[in-house]
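User: I want to check something. If I give you two sequences, will you return the structure for each one separately, not as a complex?

Assistant: Yes, each is folded on its own. Here is the first sequence with its structure:
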Amino acid sequence: MTVFEASTRSGETPPADAVAPRDSSADAPTSVARLNGTIRDFVARWNTVWVEGEITSWNVRGGNIFARLKDTRSEAQISIRIWSSVRPRIPGDLAVGDHVVAAVKADYFVKAGDFSFAVSAMKHVGLGDQLEKLEKLRLQLRQEGLFDPSRKKRLPFLPHVIGLITGEKSDAEKDVHRNAELRWPQVRFRTEYAAVQGDRCVPETLAALARLDADPDVDVIVIARGGGDPQTLLGFSDERLVRAVAAASTPIVSAIGHENDHPLLDDVADLRASTPTDAAKRVVPDVSEQRALIAQLRSRATTRLTQRLSHDIAQLEQLRSRPSLRSPDPIIDSRSQDVWLLLSRGRDTITRQQDAAGRATSELRASLRALSPAATLSRGYAIAHLDGGVILRDAADAPAGSRLTITVDRGSVAARSEGEIEEAPAPRSG
């Protein structure tokens, strides 16, 4: 059915230049511009309608908004445009997942043959069911501490094997491989394919994650998928997958969609990459950068060592330039004379002290001999001892019959007292 026939059957007056059946044939076809113009004029007669749906895409370009609206009970979707002149009249907090009603009017672009709806008004109905569930789950996981930075594992500097979970023959796989190999040509991958949307996404991703996490050779795991609307990315916010990633022993990198995509997997992963390409750049180092860094470090070490050697050589030259090291002989000669004088003086002092000490010793020896009882005995005197060794000092202490010991200059003799006599004979000298 042509646009001319559709407008005629609907009771509307067709445009003057509408494409009628008689106006075109295989031999005389109408132009694309005329066909598009007819469609535009036909669509322009439609009235504005209020429609309810959930925002699944929201992109701002040049002050205008290009979005998609999904039916709340089916998979039907429409494209909508919000021009910059309309933006001030709609809520500023609208985002993907919001449940809204919008006043839309059909709009057909002749140049591109693009059919969409222009929005003249839009308001919240309430959060979309899916967004509401995700926000509740996000809050629960955050309260459990699954998003805490302290539990996130550090990525290895240079992984030996990178585990990759992605769609088979996908652009994400090519991006990760190409960018990683450009940075480090010797990098190795172990790739596990899984559906990245739909009902098979979560179970296949869980199985692939379990296999890679159990492989001791895999040092880091990248879960990658290209961009898409939030509806297709819901599998990466599934609670089972999020908890499995949190429990994995291997560091995990989330590389889902584009910068503005934010599934729950991003929050629980050890590292969030904005795109698969960004993941490749952050998982492996750039070999050229590392070589440049090594060259820079070697240059710095060489410079520091050269500076240190130059400094030490300068210090040695300064020490060598001092008189004491440059020509030490005069100093040694002058000091040797001083040493000889001090040595002579020391010898004289010690000799005088020895002589004085010898004289003092002789005097003390003479005094000791003069005071010693042996000197008295040598002059002919004797010492009388009573029993027990007591020196007899009083004749009365030795009555007749007392035993005495008489000590003389050379030895002792035993004697017995005859008693006290009135006068003792004077001793003979010699």
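And separately, the second sequence with its own structure:
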Amino acid sequence: MNTLVRIAELSWRPVLEIAVLWFILYHILLLFAGTRARQVFRGILILVFLFLLSQAAGLPTVGWLLNKLFAISVIAALIIFHPEIRQGFVRLGQQHFFATSMKEEEIDLMLTQISKATDNLCKTRVGALIAIENKDSLSAYAENGVRLDARVSPELIETVFTPNSILHDGGLVIQDGRITAAGCIFPLTDNQDLSRMFGTRHRAALGLSEQTDAVIIVVSEERHDTSVVYQERLYRDLGKEELFQKIKEFLKSTLNR
């Protein structure tokens, strides 16, 4: 009986270890998604695989060389890709582990209200910056603004971005279907290749998308158009219906939380 128990233990432990390692590596790759560091991390994993293969094949010289190369690669990656690695750990700290879920009809209602507001703002040439929380928490950015905790409505959104108001120049944060804060400061993008035609709002939207998976809406008062920024990509000149569909597409992961 004891022998059977030991055999059972030996059989499930390697499976558990492989599952844990796979889970860790998979989420590390997700943290660095869309960055140069992800490609470097993949290269390091290949070196580790080759090192283990050389050990199993009894090739000590190749193993020694790969071991030295691995150590140098890790140090070089930490130095060269420090910003991307820091960004990855910021995302890890912002992940929802016990997130509340919204029903699809609640999201549709929220997006309808937002679309009405942005359409009106666009027609009246009033700028706006709205961030909708997805999986990554926006609480840190909401804390540096003015707390509201209000229902999403076109009237409130338009009032917040009324020219010359105190909250006009900041960003508005929406979490779990409610406006939690306004006048929030978002990080500006480090992208030097961004066209000069884009102002501070677009740069703040791209900067926030580099650190979170939020869906950010930008209404340009200069160009009289509405854009959506998601995962460091900018989708310009969207109509009312296009805006609705694009945001809902990006929030699909929220529906399945």
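Because they were folded independently, the notes below concern the second chain alone. The chain has a mean pLDDT of 78. Residues 2-94 form one domain.
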